[in-house]
């Protein structure tokens, strides 16, 4: 049994913006045991999943995969990627597997084994669960899943825990490309498989998932290394000017949580309320005291996306002082005129105002001060593309035509606008943020392995 394990995390979201090479090569020089990276998130919104595409540039994704693959193969240590291609959909897994093969061929790498797993869930599987009266519980105050929710859904992914990564490692994989995955599981899986405590392993994943976001001063896309032992977790910044401090690591561990001391996984709960943080050396923070409680029943998170319609965007600006003082009336007029013109039609219309809520003065917001100028973005969505364009054009122009009681005669002083609208592509919504109980943690994940020559 190993006394410690060292994992490098080079990027908090592989390919979203390119990994910084200087700190990566510094990390590589320390010869870590694993190269692990998360490549996706639901933070990007539902459109990428629904339309089955990436939001990251292919060139950036290849850059990051190439850095990791060449380093891992040179050392002969495993490389793990989760949530391939931003969403973890099947097509994104296939894309990453092909990229790995192409990079290996380009650099004439010796043969190695690649493992990969899919995360997409067939709607019929969930229809059967509902017919069997299995509760598919909503997260974040969503009601339980209904057949109506399923009907509105175009694509579903299950969020993998540690199990498909561990299975691929057991099958001898040197490189693993995962479908949609829990961020922490990508790092926790090798540590748990190597015999380290689950509490420390999941905390290791929690602190490494966003790479250098756990360091100070703030700097993204820089490498950090996590070291796990049977007693503690240590995290070290690789960039010469960054440090992992008590404040930066504790702050990152507890960000974005309704209850900052707990993190829930498919297999249980990480309890961080008794964690102790200490400055181990200038660039390293040491953490002890994490606890882990296995779940009585394994539940897998599901993310689903469905198309709402086609989207156009209009842009208007307002500088006239009187109009600025009555901007709420202007928007009310534009909305009312649009409702009258498109009565009986199904659409969604949003007015986003930038600059309305005061100005910044010495870094403090000053409220109730009329701004010099407002930018207004009009978002129109309808199932029919022509209707969506007409809707957005009409609503944007009504800002220009608003009838205010003290305006007498002269037109054109209230607003200026781009006298056209921009097609923004199809618009999607999250239709599913739920958990489904499973008997086998691998039930929804199809693991494959093959030789790359």
Descriptive report:
- With 453 residues, the protein is of the alpha+beta class.
- It is built from 13 helices and 22 strands.
- Strands 12-13-9-8-1-2-3-7-4-22 form a ten-stranded mixed sheet, sandwiched between helices.
- Helix 7 (163-170) crosses helix 8 (183-193) and helix 8 runs antiparallel to helix 9.
- It is globular.
- Mean pLDDT is 92; it is low at 359-363.
- It holds the Pfam family AtuA.
- InterPro entries: AtuA_N.
In the residues, how many domains can be counted? 2
- Average of per-residue pLDDT values: 92
Question: Tally of extended strands?
Answer: 22
Q: Which class best fits the helix and strand makeup?
A: alpha+beta
Reading side by side through the largest sheet, how are the strands ordered?
12-13-9-8-1-2-3-7-4-22
The residue ranges in which pLDDT falls below 50 over 5 or more consecutive positions are 359-363
The largest sheet is: 10 strands, mixed
Rg (CA only): 25 Å
What portion of residues belong to β-strands? 25-35%
Which outline best applies?
globular
The end-to-end span amounts to: 32 Å
Helix content: 25-40%
Number of helices: 13
Pfam families: AtuA
Protein name: 3-methylaspartate ammonia-lyase
Organism: Compostibacillus humi
InterPro entries: AtuA_N
For the structure shown, list the relevant keywords:
single chain; 453 residues; alpha+beta; Alpha-Beta Plaits; 2 domains; ten-stranded mixed beta sheet; 22 strands; globular; AtuA_N; 3-methylaspartate ammonia-lyase
């Amino acid at each position: 049994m190993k006394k410690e394990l060292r994992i490098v995390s080079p990027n908090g979201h592989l390919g979203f913006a390119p990994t910084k090479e200087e700190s990566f090569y510094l990390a590589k020089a320390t010869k870590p045991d694993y190269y692990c990276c998360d490549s996706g998130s639901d933070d990007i919104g539902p459109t990428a999943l629904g339309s089955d595409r990436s939001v990251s540039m292919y060139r950036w994704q290849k850059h990051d995969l190439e850095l990791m693959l060449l380093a891992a193969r040179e050392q002969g240590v495993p490389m793990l990627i989760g949530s391939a291609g931003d969403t973890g959909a099947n097509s994104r897994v296939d894309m990453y597997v092909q990229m790995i093969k192409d990079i290996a061929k380009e650099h004439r790498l010796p043969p190695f084994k690649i493992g990969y797993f899919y995360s997409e869930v067939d709607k019929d599987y969930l229809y059967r669960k509902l017919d069997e009266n299995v509760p598919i519980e909503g997260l974040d105050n969503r009601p339980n899943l209904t057949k109506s929710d399923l009907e509105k859904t175009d694509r579903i992914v299950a969020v993998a825990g540690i199990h498909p990564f561990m299975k691929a490692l057991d099958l001898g994989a040197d490189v693993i490309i995962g479908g949609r995955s829990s961020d922490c599981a990508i790092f926790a899986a090798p540590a748990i498989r190597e015999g380290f405590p689950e509490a420390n392993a999941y905390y290791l994943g929690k602190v490494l998932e966003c790479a250098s976001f756990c360091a100070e001063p703030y700097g993204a896309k820089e490498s950090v290394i996590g070291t796990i032992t049977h007693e503690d977790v240590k995290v070290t910044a690789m960039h010469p000017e960054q440090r992992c401090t008590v404040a930066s690591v504790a702050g990152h561990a507890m960000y974005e949580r309704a209850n900052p001391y707990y993190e829930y996984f498919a297999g249980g709960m990480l309890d961080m309320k008794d964690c102790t943080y200490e400055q181990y050396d200038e660039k390293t923070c040491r953490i002890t005291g994490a606890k882990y409680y296995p779940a009585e029943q394994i539940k897998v998170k599901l993310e689903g996306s469905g198309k709402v319609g086609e989207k156009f965007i209009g842009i208007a600006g307002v500088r006239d002082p009187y109009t600025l003082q009555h901007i709420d009336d202007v928007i009310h007029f534009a909305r009312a005129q649009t409702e009258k013109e498109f009565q009986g039609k199904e659409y969604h219309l949003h007015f986003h105002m930038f600059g309305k809520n005061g100005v910044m003065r010495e870094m403090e917001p000053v409220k109730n001060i009329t701004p010099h100028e407002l930018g207004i973005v009009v978002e129109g969505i309808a199932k029919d593309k022509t209707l969506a364009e007409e809707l957005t054009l009409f609503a944007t122009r009504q800002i220009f035509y608003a009838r205010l009681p003290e305006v007498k005669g002269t037109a054109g002083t209230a607003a200026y606008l781009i006298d056209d609208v921009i097609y923004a592509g199809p618009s999607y919504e999250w239709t599913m943020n739920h958990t489904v109980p499973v008997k086998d943690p691998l039930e929804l994940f199809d693991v494959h392995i093959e030789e790359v020559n």
